[in-house]
Structure formats: C-alpha cells, structure tokens
Amino acid sequence: MTDLITAIKHFASLNRAPGATWSEATKRKAPHKPLLLLAVLDLVHRGVITAPFIAVTGDLVELNELFNLYWRRIIPLGQTSSIAFPFSRLDREPFWELVPQPGTTITPAIINNTSSVTNLRKYALGAKLDEGVFQVMQSGEGREALREALLQSCFSQPRGVRLQPTAGGKVSPAVGERDR
Asked: What 3-state class would DSSP assign to 58?
C-alpha cells in the first residue's frame, strides 16, 4: 500500500531522459511520462479510469487524446510523440507495471523499441497501477498533490500553468495555444 507521501515522491522523481531536444520548459528532460500521468490523473478525476488497470484498447483512446493535447501545450509545433512511448517506459517506475499479452514476456528490449500503439498492443494488455497510488489518485486532495508534484518537478512555471485543468477537471482548448 502506497501512502500520499510515497506517491508524491514517485511522481516527483520520475526517471526522465535528459537531452538537447528538451528546453527549459521541461527542465531539459523528456516530458512524456509526466504528460501521460497528468492525463491519467484527469481521467481518474472524470471517472473514465475507475480501476488500477489501464487497457491498451478502449482506455487508450481518450488517454491518447488528452496526452496529445498536453503535448501541444508544452512542445513546439513539429515535434510529435506517441502515447506508446511513455506508456511502455513507465514500466521502469515502481508504481506502473505492464501486463503482457498471454504467452508474451515484456523485456527491456521490447520496452525500448515500443514507439507505436500497434507495437504496444502486440506485447501488452495494458498497465497495472500500484493499488495505493491509484487510491491516492482517486481522492481530490491526492490527485492535486500528485499533479503539483509533476508540475513542479517536470515543468517550468510558465509552461506548467498551461497544464492546469479548468473546472470539472478538463483542460481548456484555448489555454496556452498562443505564445509557444
């Protein structure tokens, strides 16, 4: 069982790849994992994700849309990503476990080479969240604490503001579209 403090520590210390590609907006590290987790938090809030398992079928459609919306808020036009990239690589975090397709083993090489949803679905049924982390996500206080941990540890102040949900837990399409 994971408590709030432990969950915050997990979210604030995500293993993110550094690189010249990434600007100060993402604190010079890859933004994929925190953007996906922000989308997961929002879908838990909306009642779309109701269990600590995220399937790579139905759940992935709305999650992908929200991930891409967040991506466009932070990353310059022209740079793209697939939700498969962070979905698979979050397996390296202590609270996220890929669940393999029957008869399949998910190896580090498979994780490293997963860059499309088609490829992800070939090997994984979905991801299982730590039960304690999921319980934290289900409470309003816990969700806000996890969101704040991600925003503070992974994004600069001006960019982090673009990732704040409006009333009802939704991100306004008008927020942050200008001044990239």
From this structure: helix
Range of the domain at 89: 4-13+28-166
Q: How far is CA 175 from CA 110, 165, 171, in A?
A: 36, 9, 8
pTM over 0.85: yes
Number of folded domains that form the chain: 1
Residue with the larger pLDDT of the pair 23 and 135 = 135
Q: What ranges in the chain are assigned the alpha helix state H? A: 4-12, 32-46, 58-74, 84-89, 108-112, 117-123, 131-138, 140-154, 157-161
What is the spatial order of strands in the sheet that 96-100 belongs to? 53-55, 124-129, 96-100
**Scanning the structure block, which residue is given the tokens 């790849």?**
17
Contact 127, 133 (CB under 8 A): no
Q: pLDDT digit string (tens) for 108-164?
A: 999 999 989 999 999 999 999 999 999 999 999 999 999 999 999 999 876 656 676
